[in-house]
């Protein structure tokens, strides 16, 4: 049907903007980080197999799948179905081409897929609209979401890939007044003004009433860095939808203030009582609910600015986030500073699931954690006044009580070290320390036979010893650090030590590297180097500070050592696939990296699973211990369960502080009382 000279350039331009971190924010859905297929080997079978593989990966990640089809399209006369022509397609022979609508239905129906966004730049593009009956009555019971943006009507040609090129440029420029995210409908309206001779068409189907956010194609670049003297993206979206149900008699609050929100609530209430709203009564109730929530958010932001303003940082805001379901946690944006505070408050009040009948339980947990992290007095009168203004006094009391329990659980830590190993095997003694608030308060050494069974039996006795002293201090013992020599790191799971019940059932067990307790003279620098790495990791504003290595890095130890000596990897280091030569490089990595991660088995830790670390990084390694417990107990199917596939050796500032104490005492020379 003739060459499409602009095809490759248009496809690459669109692919680049969709994968841009600040725009499309897409990760490649194919193996080897590939997102673009083109050329003479892209046949009908390969297209179909590739889209199905991409749907599987999206389903595993619980992600939205973006599919763009560019090229020649044909449609049978009188039937608006689009067939994409691959390299082996023959004109007018439908069986040789790809039925795009059917493929979109398959992808949307795949378990776990959060929704499918299709971009179609072919002739007859609107023929890609799938059969709605297949979406509403499929294997997922209608809980499917599909949003399509198409270059032309079902009976129209499309020219020169104009649609793809204009769409890529529009995504870079942004859409004014479209909010934080650019939806298909907003992009359609803009493209209709710039593409001549083609009718840009869109369609959206949303059958998932449990979805926490609508489908969007890209972050709106017009919104990045915008003045936030108003609601954030979530608040603006909810308020805009609320006002649409009320009607044109109520106005957007200007300026953004408590007084204006009070005025707006009064106006909505008047419309509701008079029965003049354009939406059903339930949605009018929802409108009042949204305004009340935004009022709580604004009051809280003003309170935090006055009470904790000089202590607020982006990292502190992220650390204070309470535990959230993974799908809600994924909504936390990559903003910083004041914009991040606005977004977090709206997420906790407007989008996060309620605890019982309370909409402020998560909010008070956040405020209490933020104040505690900043060293502020939670009993101050202004804190109580804020809680009363939000109707959250009891929730604040509950949050403070829970915080006190959590701090008590973190107070004591049992350290069990196997550093007395001989010839890198099981040691003949265990060294024990009980730390209270980071200070060593009890010490002991336990002799044992140098076998795994004997060590694990003594580890059970060590826990009993620690709990006995914990009772005397009237505090629980939740955390157990096990310092392990290099040879045992890859073949022993101390949390599975069984003394009637597994050690990790009631304790958060963290594996440390015993060499950091008493490094040999030539490794005197490793703990200072780790501190520098942790400082760099703490400056990472968004995402997990992990450098992922590949098999060849482990198979070439000399090259890896040279990069490590040059300061190439100073953050956490992880392997997405367990390399065959991990044993040869593990000691090298442990000396340089504060945190080392690798898959427990030969199963790959996929990019979608790696993104879990972005969500839960601030809760690690404790959340990993929780994932191990969940795996033993059957799991609940939550995305965070996948963390149980990872093993780690973890060093944080608290551990390095203990190593400094260890270094300054006789224990460094092997004399442990």
Estimate the helix proportion, in percent.
40-55%
Strand content: 5-15%
Number of helices: 25
> Which secondary-structure class do the elements indicate?
alpha/beta
| Total strands | 18
CATH fold description of the largest domain: Rossmann fold
Average predicted local confidence, pLDDT: 88
Rg of Cα set = 29 Å
The level 1 CATH classification of the largest domain is: Alpha Beta
Tally of separate domains: 3
Largest sheet: 5 strands, mixed
| Strand arrangement in the largest pleated sheet | 12-11-10-13-14
- Distance between termini? 85 Å
| Low-pLDDT runs | 224-228, 666-673
For the record, the CATH architecture of the largest domain stands as 3-Layer(aba) Sandwich
Structural summary, described in words:
The chain is of the alpha/beta class. The protein has three domains: 7-219, 3-Layer(aba) Sandwich (Rossmann fold), CATH 3.40.50; 233-391, no CATH class; 519-673, no CATH class. The chain has 25 helices and 18 strands. A five-stranded mixed beta sheet has the order 12-11-10-13-14. Strands 1-5-6-8 form a four-stranded mixed beta sheet, sandwiched between helices. Strand 5, helix 4 (132-136) and strand 6 form a beta-alpha-beta unit. It is globular. 40% of the residues are buried.
Give a short synopsis of this structure:
With 673 residues, this protein is α/β, with parallel strands linked by helices.
């Amino acid at each position: 049907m003739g060459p499409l000279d602009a095809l490759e350039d248009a496809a690459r331009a669109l692919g680049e903007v969709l994968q841009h971190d600040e725009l499309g924010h897409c990760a490649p859905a194919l193996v080897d980080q590939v997102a673009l297929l083109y050329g003479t080997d892209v046949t009908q079978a390969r297209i179909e197999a590739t889209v199905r593989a991409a749907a599987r990966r999206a389903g595993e990640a619980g992600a939205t799948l973006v599919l763009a089809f560019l090229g020649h399209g044909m449609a049978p006369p009188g039937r608006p179905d689009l067939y994409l022509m691959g390299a082996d397609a023959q004109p007018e022979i439908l069986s040789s081409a790809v039925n795009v609508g059917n493929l979109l239905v398959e992808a949307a129906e795949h378990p776990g897929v959060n929704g499918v966004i299709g971009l179609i730049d072919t002739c007859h593009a609107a023929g890609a609209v799938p059969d709605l009956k297949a979406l509403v009555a499929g294997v997922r019971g209608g809980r499917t979401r599909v949003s399509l943006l198409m270059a032309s009507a079902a009976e129209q040609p499309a020219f020169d890939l104009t649609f793809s090129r204009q769409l890529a440029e529009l995504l870079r420029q942004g859409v004014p007044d479209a909010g934080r995210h650019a939806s298909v409908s907003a992009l359609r309206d803009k493209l209709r003004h710039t593409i001549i001779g083609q009718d840009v068409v869109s369609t959206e189907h949303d059958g998932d009433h449990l979805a926490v956010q609508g489908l969007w194609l890209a972050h709106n670049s017009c919104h990045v860095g915008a003045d936030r003297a108003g609601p954030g993206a979530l608040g603006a979206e909810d308020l805009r939808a609320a006002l649409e149900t009320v009607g044109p008699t109520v106005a957007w609050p200007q300026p953004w203030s408590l007084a204006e929100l009070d005025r707006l609530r009064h106006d909505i209430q008047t419309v509701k009582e008079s029965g003049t709203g354009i939406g059903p009564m339930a949605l009018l109730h929802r409108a009042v609910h949204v305004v009340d929530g935004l009022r709580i958010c604004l009051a809280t932001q003003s309170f935090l600015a006055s009470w904790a303003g000089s202590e607020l940082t982006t990292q502190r805001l992220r650390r204070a986030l309470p535990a959230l379901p993974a799908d809600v946690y994924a909504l936390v944006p990559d903003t910083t500073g004041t914009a991040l505070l606005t977004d977090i408050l709206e997420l906790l009040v407007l989008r996060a699931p309620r605890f019982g009948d309370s909409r402020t339980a998560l909010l008070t947990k956040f405020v209490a954690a933020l104040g505690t992290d900043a060293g502020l007095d939670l009993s101050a009168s202004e804190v109580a006044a804020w809680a009363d203004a939000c109707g959250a006094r009891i929730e604040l009391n509950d949050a403070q009580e829970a915080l006190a329990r959590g701090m008590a659980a973190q107070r004591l830590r049992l350290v069990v070290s196997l550093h007395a190993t001989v010839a890198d095997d099981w040691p003949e003694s265990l060294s024990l320390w009980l730390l209270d608030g980071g200070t060593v308060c009890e010490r002991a050494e336990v002799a044992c036979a140098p076998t795994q069974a004997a060590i694990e039996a003594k580890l059970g006795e060590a826990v009993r010893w620690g709990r006995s002293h914990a009772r005397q201090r009237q505090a629980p013992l939740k955390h157990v650090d096990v310092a392990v020599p290099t040879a045992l790191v890859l073949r022993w799971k101390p949390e599975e030590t069984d003394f009637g019940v597994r050690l990790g059932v009631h304790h958060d067990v963290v594996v440390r590297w015993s060499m950091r307790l008493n490094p040999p003279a030539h490794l005197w620098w490793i703990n200072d180097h780790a501190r520098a790495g942790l400082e760099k990791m703490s400056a990472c504003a968004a995402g997990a500070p992990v450098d992922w290595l590949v098999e060849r890095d482990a198979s070439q130890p000399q090259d890896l050592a040279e990069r490590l000596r040059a300061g190439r990897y100073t953050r956490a280091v992880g392997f997405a696939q367990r390399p065959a030569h991990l044993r040869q490089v593990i000691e090298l990595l442990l000396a340089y990296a504060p945190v080392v991660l690798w898959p427990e088995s030969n199963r790959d830790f996929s990019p979608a699973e790696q993104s879990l670390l972005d969500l839960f990084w601030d809760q690690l390694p404790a959340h990993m211990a929780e994932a191990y417990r969940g795996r033993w107990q059957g799991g609940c199917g939550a995305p965070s369960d996948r963390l149980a596939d990872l093993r780690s050796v973890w060093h944080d500032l608290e551990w390095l502080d203990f190593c400094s104490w260890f270094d300054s005492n006789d224990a460094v020379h092997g004399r442990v009382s």
